Amino acid sequence: MTLSQAPKSRSIRSSRWLAPALALVLLAALPGCSSFGSLFGKEDVVPDEPADKLYNEGLFLLNNRRDARAAAKKFEEVDRQHPYSEWARKSLIMSAYAYYEAREYEESINAAKRYVTLHPGSPDAAYAQFLIASSYYDEIPDITRDQSRTEKALNALDEVARKYPESEYATSAKRKAQVARDNLAGKEMEIGRYYLKRKDFPGAINRFKVVVTQYQTTRHVEEALMRLTECYMSLGIVQEAQTAAAVLGHNFPDSRWYKDAYSLVKSGGTEPREYEGSWISKAFKKVGVNLG
Fold this sequence. Notes:
There is one protein chain. The protein is mainly alpha-helical. The protein folds into 2 domains: about 130 residues, Serine Threonine Protein Phosphatase 5, Tetratricopeptide repeat (Alpha Horseshoe), CATH 1.25.40.10; about 100 residues, Serine Threonine Protein Phosphatase 5, Tetratricopeptide repeat (Alpha Horseshoe). Helix content is about 70%, strand content about 0%. The chain has 13 helices and no strands. α8 runs antiparallel to α9, α9 packs antiparallel against α10 and α11 packs antiparallel against α12.
């Protein structure tokens, strides 16, 4: 053996000792492997917890600890560990409610929609639909912002009243739907006033027309009729102005907006008068109610 061969021989002998030791270190460092058995496909399996235990833990967190989000997670665990069971059905509606209480509205909507899809004939389906609607409703923004959430709330609330008219949630849904309609009408009025201020009368008329035709039961309809009187008088379309003022006076005779509309029509040398061919007259006859 030459001097140049000696180090190489010692290196080989050292690596023979290091290899088994290194393997042991790597085995210990492997993630998720708590024993040698797990390396050969024998994973440690955590047994499922009883469904009623998980469910009651969720109720405890919801009612005693006031931790709605943690409760929702417990209810979700019931569904994960015990799918297709009666406990899973109950837990799904409870998770929707818990998320609603936690103000995590998107999660509440998703859980409630899943419930309605899976259990449409259940006695709790009406409540699930009401949770969907209420989640949208609680996020209705003020009228200066985009109203897509308000539209979703209105559609969901109308569905509660339409599909479950005899349920205990129908009355509340109708009341909330009226608030949503008022918000949507307010948005149209805001845009209409913007156009009116800039003397874009056709643009303003289109917005006030939406209020009169689609949101006739809201508090904004009085002003919308007066603004239509103003726009039509400005354009010289006197008959439409007369009709708007007349319909306003017929349905809201004590309204301050009628006084303004009446003054506008009088300033043009005429009186409020309803013309049967006017779209305004037709819109109110179509609804068939006197709002005054």
